[in-house]
Amino acid sequence: MKAYIQSINGMPRGMSQYTAWLGFKNMGFETVPFETVDDLDACDREDVVVGGLGVVRARLRALSADTSEINYPEELRPFLGRRLWKTTIDHVSTEVSSWPLFVKPVEGKRFTGCVVASTKDLIGKGCCGEDFPVICSEVVDFVSEYRCFVRYGEILDVRRYRGDWSKAPGREVVERAIAAYASAPAGYAADFGVTSDGRTLLVEVNDGYSLGPYGLWPELYAQLLSARWAQMVGTNDPCDFGVPVPRM
């Protein structure tokens, strides 16, 4: 297996790519820089591709892998702590009485999830005649948000990415949620937030084939990416050594 790292002038193009490059390199795997999806023609099926979401998805789809969003798994609905429903962006724009509400596209690349409280919040959220599906939820006041990295059912680490550093999610809630996720992929991240009234709630689940590391140890990050890639393309995971990588 080789790790193809999206790069600019031979250097990893961002922190995610750099972290993956360092992790795979430290574990002894060959790393290959590339710039566009057209450079991936020489890839073998088992070669992990690390890059922008569009590039990674393009490669996976070329291998007939399903790249559907995970978002909110059914097993984890009890940990949301808020009502959730599906509708369309046109319906959101016309049902003013339902504002404020949190809106995110079912297809993640259309726009970043946001709170819609006024018409200005809808700017850039669609085009005339393009009524695409979205997921809506009640607005929750999160004071901090943390990412829980999981590989083969094991929590690798939990990292803060937004809000008050002193407001950490409840360990028991996080562990119960991960244990309840029976249909979990081999590698993924579950984001948890702490509310202003002290509750720990699930924010969303992100698939493991393209994730921000948020300070996760490079070898652990590379192992997570490798686990999910192998599962999606139907190959053996070359990073499944059977022993944990030491945390430092």
Tell me the count of domains.
Answer: 3
Give the overall shape, derived from the CA principal axes. Answer: globular
Give me the secondary-structure category: alpha+beta
Which value, in Å, is the CA radius of gyration?
A: 19 Å
Oligomer: single chain
Distance between the termini: 25 Å
Major sheet details: 4 strands, mixed
Description:
- The model has no long low-confidence stretch (mean pLDDT 92).
- The chain contains 5 helices and 12 strands.
- α1 (15-26) crosses α5 (218-233).
- Strands 1, 2, 3 and 4 form a 4-stranded mixed sheet that branches. Strands 5-8-6-7 form a 4-stranded antiparallel sheet.
- It folds into 3 domains: 1-67 and 209-247, no CATH class; 70-81 and 140-208, D-amino Acid Aminotransferase, Chain A, domain 1, CATH 3.30.470.20; 83-138.
- It is of the alpha+beta class and 248 residues long.
Quick summary of this structure?
The protein has 248 residues and is of the alpha+beta class. 22% of the residues lie in helices and 29% in strands. Helix 1 packs across helix 5.
Name some characteristics of this structure.
248 residues, 12 strands, alpha+beta, 4-stranded mixed sheet, 3 domains, 22% helix, D-amino Acid Aminotransferase, Chain A, domain 1
Indicate the topology.
Layout: E1 2-8, E2 11-12, H1 15-26, E3 30-34, E4 48-50, H2 53-62, E5 84-88, H3 89-94, E6 101-105, E7 114-116, E8 133-137, E9 142-151, E10 154-163, H4 171-180, E11 187-195, E12 200-207, H5 218-233
Parallel strand pairs: 1-3, 1-4
Antiparallel strand pairs: 1-2, 5-8, 6-7, 6-8, 9-10, 9-11, 11-12
Helix pairs in contact: 1-5
